[in-house]
């Protein structure tokens, strides 16, 4: 019985350490501004309003090393119920750049696409809107980005 207790305690310690490692890894590799994801935009609003809406600091949720802001209590609760549904793909980096070159490139949070229930963000500055390029070759770029992101996220 004592060995079962020791095993259970060690298992909990291992799970806790792995969760902390995951948070540190996400902090290191996600596109964050002082720990804030999507430059403070509400990740749920992309799905519920089909537009980028700034979140509020007083409606923040800390999830595995990353802080998200929300524009409404309802959106905050939706996120808390299923964070992986609303978090942007590729750590919030430009989906096009991740697919084209396997690089972390900043985004314009107002340039986005919902594809198969997932949020993709894109670079859009200085006459370059990578969402347009993504749309021209989406299947191939998405496939490459899905392979490239895990290579960077370690």
Describe the structure.
The chain has 154 residues and is an alpha+beta fold. It is globular and about 40 Å long. The chain has helices at residues 2-29, 45-48, 73-81, 83-86, 95-100, 130-136, 138-152; strands at residues 32-33, 36-37, 56-63, 66-70, 108-115, 118-122, 124-125, 128-129. A hairpin with a 2-residue loop joins strand 5 (108-115) and strand 6 (118-122). Helix content is 47%, strand content 22%. The chain starts with a helix and ends with a helix. It has two domains: 28-86, no CATH class; 88-154, no CATH class. The strands form four sheets. Strands 1-2 form a two-stranded antiparallel sheet. A two-stranded antiparallel ribbon has the order 3-4.
Instruction: Report how far apart the termini are.
Output: 38 Å
What is the overall number of helices?
7
Order of adjacent strands in the largest pleated sheet: 1-2
How much of the sequence is in beta strands? 15-25%
Q: Average pLDDT value?
A: 87
* Count of folded domains: 2
Portion of residues within helices: 40-55%
Structural category is alpha+beta
Molecular shape: globular
Number of strands: 8
| Spans of at least 5 consecutive residues with low confidence | 2-20
Radius of gyration, CA atoms, in whole angstroms: 17 Å
Task: Summarize the helix and strand pattern as letters.
Answer: HEEHEEHHHEEEEHH
Biggest sheet architecture: 2 strands, antiparallel
